[in-house]
Amino acid sequence: MKDSNAKSLNTSITKAFHLLDHFNSIKPEWGVRELAKETGANKSTTYRMLATLESLGVLRKDQTSEKYSLGLKLFELGNRVPVKHAFINHTHPVLQLVAAEITETVHLGILKDQQVFMLDKVESPKGLKLNSVIGTFSPAYCSGLGKVLLAHLDPLQQKKTLHAIALKANTEFTITKKAKLKKQLEQIKNQAYAIDRQELELGLICVAVPVYNQDDHVIAALSAAGPAIRFKEEKIEEYVAILQKGANMIRQKIGSLTL
């Protein structure tokens, strides 16, 4: 009897995670009927599963549209993941050194679900605080971190990712044509750094470089961001050199670690 109950419980957990896998940046909200159709599951079973996940805070339900989206519980649990902490324990001191030398806000991010996930951040010693928040997502196509990460995807994965991304103008400087973005990504890969010139936010410039592990795989990106008035074109090479020095320090600390 116990084995039967355990098997039933394991099946329910598997089904729950199968449903959760369908919530992403392309389709962040699902109604019961459409999710049941998409997964081939029974509508009443899907409803019960979604309702249970909502009661646990894993999902939230919009009372107007009656559609479900991911809840804060997943964010809370995500911040407890050991690999994240193990990685940041190695990298955070490096970010502090880079921020002190470059005197701007420094970010560390990875590519997840066609977006940049902010792993860590050290504020500028000059006191200007940016809106970026650790543990949140931002568009990849219009940020320094994101463009570096997109540029270093293998060609097939990059093609699939660009196809899935909708390019929307955040500012007048945002690239909204995929052909133009792809050409820029080629340039970024060749020069080994990316610049966001007020593409994500007006008045903000970001310079980013790839972070390699010791197997020569790009696993993250490191950036410095600050007000456009301070980011002079003649200083870009200096910023890149400081960031690359930081990226190399991280590489030596993390070995073959992947995220």
Radius of gyration: 21 Å
Q: Architecture of the largest domain, CATH level 2? A: 2-Layer Sandwich
* Structural class by secondary-structure content: alpha+beta
CATH topology of the largest domain: Beta-Lactamase
Chain-averaged pLDDT = 87
The rough form would be described as globular
Q: Can you identify the CATH class of the largest domain?
A: Alpha Beta
Strand percentage lies at 15-25%
Description:
By secondary structure, the protein is an alpha+beta fold. The protein has two domains: about 80 residues, Winged helix-like DNA-binding domain superfamily/Winged helix DNA-binding domain (Arc Repressor Mutant, subunit A), CATH 1.10.10; about 170 residues, GAF domain (Beta-Lactamase, 2-Layer Sandwich), CATH 3.30.450.40. Helix content is about 45%, strand content about 20%. The strands form two sheets. It has a six-stranded antiparallel sheet with strand order 5-4-3-8-7-6. The longest helix is centred in the middle third of the chain and has 21 residues. It starts with a helix and ends in a 5-residue tail after the last helix.
